[in-house]
Amino acid sequence: xxxxxxxxxxxxxxxxxxxxxxxxxxxxxxxxxxxxxxxxxxxxxxxxxxxxxxxxxxxxxxxxxxxxxxxxxxxxxxxxxxxxxxxxxxxxxxxxxxxxxxxxxxxxxxxxxxxxxxxxxxxxxxxxxxxxxxxxxxxxxxxxxxxxxxxxxxxxxxxxxxxxxxxxxxxxxxxxxxxxxxxxxxxxxxxxxxxxxxxxxxxxxxxxxxx
Length: 211
Description:
Elements: H1 5-20, E1 26-27, E2 44-45, H2 69-72, E3 75-78, E4 83-86, H3 87-96, H4 128-146, H5 151-174, H6 188-209
């Protein structure tokens, strides 16, 4: 995830400028952090599988990465906190009685449902394939829900999401559930600042041209 608010603000302004020129804009190799691009009125975001979901090295076009321990680690994406968690931290949530707060909507997907079946998460058959399919399913759902009928509504919705995420992360942290280097806690203000910069620089014209 990007921890530089200036970089993210510049991306939002760039994308919004392209949209104001009547261009179709698709931003590739995105993580869930980039659902904020809805505020720039982008047409779509694209993601990938395995490590390509979170980080993309241009050398992958010309060389194949060796398998690694990180590639084999099982993560669960909790869209309520915009964070990912290793399975032992889901066990922590299970033992603390807060695992249900991390459960996706029943209609969203079935890839991660086994983690909430009543058994301790680490005893289930959840694997890497389920992990990235669950992630992409959630990301698609979030992207669809990100853009509203006006710029002002979209910005307000993005900020409301960040407020909710902040509360959820705080509650999970109080129960020992942390996302380590995939915890969104230090990214919340990055997105807030970038969204505010976009609103200050392009809000009026985006609101008038929104469609």
